[in-house]
Amino acid sequence: MTNPTTRRRFQQSAAVSLSAGAICPGLHSADENTDLLRGKAEHVISIWLGGGMGQLDTFDPKRKGDPATKVPGSYYDAIDTAVPGVQVCEHLQQLAPLMDQVTAVRTITHEVIDEHAAATNRMHTGRPVSGTITYPSIGSLIAHQRGAASDNAPPYVLIGYPNVTRGPGFLGPQSGYLYLTDTSRGPAGLSRPDGITSQRQTRRESFLAELRKRNPAAGDAATADYEQAIEQILRLSGPEFSAAFQLQREPDALRESYGGEFGQRCLLSRRLIERGVRFVEVAHNLNFLNGSGWDVHNEGILDQYKLIQELDRAMSSLIRDLQTKQMLDKTLIVVTTEFGRPPEFDSNGGRGHQCRGFSCVLAGGGLNHVGAWGEMDELSKKIVHNPVTVPDFFATICAALSVDYRRNLYHGDRPIPITDNGQPISTLLS
Question: Count of CB atoms within 10 A of residue 167's CB?
Fold first, then answer.
């Protein structure tokens, strides 16, 4: 006989499940009979805020707190935006009037709270770290599925330091990235040595072509991959793609509007997608203007506003720039971070980590933007409506670029769901 208490708990659990389904109209179950959602974006510019952007100090402001007296709450005042009822923090003044082109997804959730590296991996691959398989990053997934938009561009460029988290995993090097860390120069591997003029390079290529004609390559896969890599490097080191890195060609006023090094990275990302790059990641964690970046424990929070203002300036300039060039609907801007921050203040006025509800941002990309999606409680600590898992967020990115978020990829004979069975936020794509 079923215990009455057990039966009652089961009924309560079922009621909660039904209620959760009712308050999550944008997230569908994996039903093959429903229509596949497809957007019209062609490119992604992904801005990575390493360290953990605090949601209630940026895109999900709540009541004002006080670190001195340990009253939980936002560190800054809130301001209205172009979307009625949606507010952001006072240091996002330039983004506020553009929020009708933006959706702050306020209810991203995962369970990785203590380790920055593991959380960074989760927010790039959408999966836990595995000892048996290396999963691809979202950049590599898009590169693998869509390829470059031009024969003279790579599909994926990283403006920041490389690591396995951002890489192709089991998809292999063809879905990897080209990277650089300094906007004043292009990728080091594509720069010609001093003394190698265009004429000398042309002669070298003609000699290589003659050698290939006289000695056809063997038919093995390794040699074919090597030959393909040589051809790609020669294309990318040519003047057409290399011109993307010549930021001095942009008007001085435009360059100034973007701001410093981080802003110049965002400007470079626009130039890269113009030339056919499909996915660009721009790292912001190199500009530690407050001594700790977005990892605002203790006194690091004192100058957090400098980072927020830098993000505000660069992202708003990027949106306006893309609009001017009629590229915004084709370019999805994504802002991610490894986790958020709780409303409570630590002993020195900073904040700890929060993974069970934080904000990431989508802009442009032809989406039906609503300013903000999902709802946290009065202190942005617990999800109230519309939780969005990392796979769901990735599925939304895939759908925006017309990538089939339901399909399987294969690691050998092992099927791997492309977004770990994530479901897109349908409201943004309907």
Answer: 23
Two tokens at 417?
Answer: 């769901």
DSSP 249-262: GS-HHHHHHH-SHH
Q: What is the pLDDT of residues 90-135, one digit of tens each?
A: 999 999 999 999 999 999 999 999 899 999 999 999 999 888 899 9
Q: Which amino acid would we find at residue 88?
A: V
Q: For residue 280, what are the β-bridge partners?
A: 45, 157
Report whether 179 contacts 316 (CB < 8 A).
Answer: no
Q: Regarding the domain with residue range 33-191+253-428, which homologous superfamily does it belong to in the CATH classification?
A: Alkaline Phosphatase, subunit A (3.40.720.10)
* Strands in 202-304 per DSSP E: 279-283
How far is it, in rounded angstroms, from Cα 239 to Cα 232? 13
Cα–Cα distance, 45 to 165 (Å, whole number):
17
**CA torsion angle for 287, 289, 294, 298 (degrees, to 10)?**
150
Contacts with 127 (C-beta within 8 Å, 6 or more apart), sequence order? 135, 420
Centroid of chain to Cα 130: 21
- Which tokens is 332 given? 């999805």
Closest CA to 284 of 274, 276, 295, 273: 295
Query: Judging by DSSP bridges, how do beta strands 414-417 and 408-411 pair with one another?
Result: antiparallel
φ and ψ at residue 81, rounded to 5 degrees: -125, -175
Q: Is the dihedral of CA 421, 422, 426, 430 positive or negative?
A: negative
What single string gives the DSSP state of each residue in 171-201?
Answer: G-GGG--EEES-TTS--GGGSPPTT--HHHH
CA distances from 208 to 169, 198, 213, 215 (A): 32, 15, 9, 10
Report d(CA 301, CA 66) in Å as an integer.
12
Residues for the chain: how many in total? Answer: 430
- Here the tokens at position 290 are 């407050």
pLDDT, position 26:
41
Q: Work out the burial of residue 214: count CB atoms within 10 Å of its CB; fewer than 13 is exposed, 13-18 middle, 19 or more buried.
A: exposed
Cα 53 from Cα 359, distance rounded (Å) = 8
Domain boundaries, the chain: 33-191+253-428
Report the alpha-carbon distance of residue 304 to residue 197 in Å, rounded: 46
pLDDT digits (tens, 9 = 90+) for 179-195: 999 888 788 666 666 66
Mean pLDDT of the chain: 88
Whole-number Å distance between alpha carbons of 30 and 7? 28
Torsion of CA 423, 122, 401, 279, to 10 degrees: 180
Tokens of 346: 């630590």
Other C-beta atoms closer than 10 Å to the C-beta of 240 total 14
